[in-house]
Design goal:
Elements (H helix, E strand, L loop, with lengths): L2 E6 L6 E10 L4 H18 L2 E11 L1 H14 L6 E4 L3 H10 L4 E4 L2 H12 L7 H4 L8 H33 L4 H15 L3 H10 L33 H16 L3 E8 L4 E8 L3 H8 L7 H8 L3 E3 L10 H9 L4 E8 L5 E9 L8 H38 L2
Helix pairs in contact: 1-2, 2-3, 6-7, 6-8, 7-13, 8-13, 9-13
Length: about 400
């Protein structure tokens, strides 16, 4: 049975995303076609362009081709079908058949760009489109989040791959699947994000005995002045980083912000938490384009950076300025999180949509204190939780 789920889209993009899964063969093609037509009719009534995600459709090529041919024939005069992430057999069949009214894209990201271009050409849309209501607003954010998650997986895959290779070589594991299962089990047992655990495997000195870290003792929890609130468990990394961002926004009464960490395995920034809209700027940062940004300046100087007016600040590169303005940020504060050795391990950024914001002295001091709290907690977390996870992994793979 074919299952479909609809992710609703932003009207300006004119998108209705249909995620499909199941097996499509000659016997099931008719039922699949009827279900698909129902969703497409809904898209047409709302004046939206349908996007079909077929990544999880198992197929017989002829059945897919016949279904799409029938669907495009009855949709003559309507916007093209956009198909994303189709399996090779589907792509080849559609390409060879030269079906009218079907557009193929390899990724959701490419489809997003197409929809954005279409949204900028409203005058070219047929009259029926401009007269329809747009009830499906929430899904644009969902689509962007999915693209961002896919990009994050692409960025973290090399580090996880390095960790798998090191475990295979060190412990004689037979394949990457075995190494991944050990990483995943340890990650879940200690509630440590997989990418954080993998980076620790890569950068930690290799074990040379039955104990990875002989003589290691868990540190007592440091005296936290801002982060010490009831209900916060310092063992849970995600909860604590969310708390860091919450406190930063509350201190300066900013509507938006984000927390980035420095991945020690590749010395690159990784998004940990965000609140409010800054998609364009965050995409700019996590793709490695950090030169000429507030984060790069704060990381290099090792101290808080204040930018009351992004549009005129001389510290920003033009690319960094454009990314911030595109994200709707006109003023910001960025505070580095420094280890006891003075190395930047993370960055806390808050921003406002209008220029002129400059925290008063007590607020600035509180931000610096929050960064110091965060650094102290991270040091405790690394020695107590993260090294404990590595020790568990080592013991599991070396015991008879």
């Amino acid at each position: 049975m074919i299952e479909s789920s609809v992710v609703e889209g932003l009207p300006a993009e004119g998108a209705l995303l249909l995620r499909m899964s199941g097996t499509l063969d000659a016997g099931g093609a008719h039922a699949w076609s009827e279900e698909l037509r129902g969703h497409l009719a809904r898209a047409d009534r709302a004046g939206l362009r349908p996007v079909l995600d077929m990544a999880h459709v198992q197929l017989g090529g002829a059945a897919v081709l016949r279904t799409l041919s029938e669907t495009t024939r009855v949709r003559a005069g309507r916007p093209d079908l956009i198909i994303v992430r189709a399996r090779p057999g589907v792509r080849e069949a559609v390409h060879l058949a030269r079906l009218e009214g079907v557009q193929l894209y390899a990724t959701l990201d490419e489809a997003l760009r197409e929809l954005a271009r279409a949204a900028s050409r409203v005058e070219e849309l047929p009259a029926w489109r401009s007269q329809m209501a747009d009830p499906l607003r929430p899904s644009y954010q969902d689509l962007h989040q999915e693209v961002r998650a896919l990009r994050a997986r692409v960025r973290t895959a090399p580090v996880i791959g390095m960790a798998q290779g090191m475990l295979m070589a060190r412990y004689g594991l037979p394949d990457t699947g075995s190494a991944f299962r050990v990483l995943r089990e340890t990650s879940q047992r200690f509630n440590v994000p997989l990418r954080v655990l993998a980076a620790a495997v890569v950068v930690a000195r290799p074990p040379d005995g039955p104990t990875w870290f002989p003589g290691r003792r868990p540190l007592p929890l440091p005296q936290l002045r801002i982060l010490a609130r009831a209900g916060r468990d310092p063992r849970y990394r995600g909860q604590m980083i969310e708390a860091v961002l919450h406190e930063a926004l509350a201190i300066v009464r900013a509507p938006a912000g984000h927390v980035l960490s420095v991945d020690p395995a590749v010395n690159a920034l990784a998004l940990e938490s965000r609140y409010g809209g800054a998609d364009a700027y965050l995409d700019h940062l996590v793709r490695g384009r950090t030169d000429g940004t507030a984060e790069a300046v704060a990381r290099t100087r090792g101290r808080r950076v204040s930018m009351p007016d992004v549009a005129t600040d001389a510290l920003l590169s033009e690319d960094g300025r454009r990314a911030l303005l595109a994200a709707g940020a006109r003023a910001l504060q960025c505070v580095p999180v420094l280890s006891s050795a003075g190395c930047c391990t993370g960055l806390i950024t808050v921003h406002w949509p209008d220029a002129g914001h400059r925290p008063a002295s007590p607020q600035a001091e509180a931000l610096d204190l929050l960064a110091a709290d965060t650094a102290a907690w991270l040091a405790w977390y690394h020695r107590t939780v993260l090294l404990g996870a590595l020790e568990h992994l080592h013991q599991r793979l070396t015991r008879p």
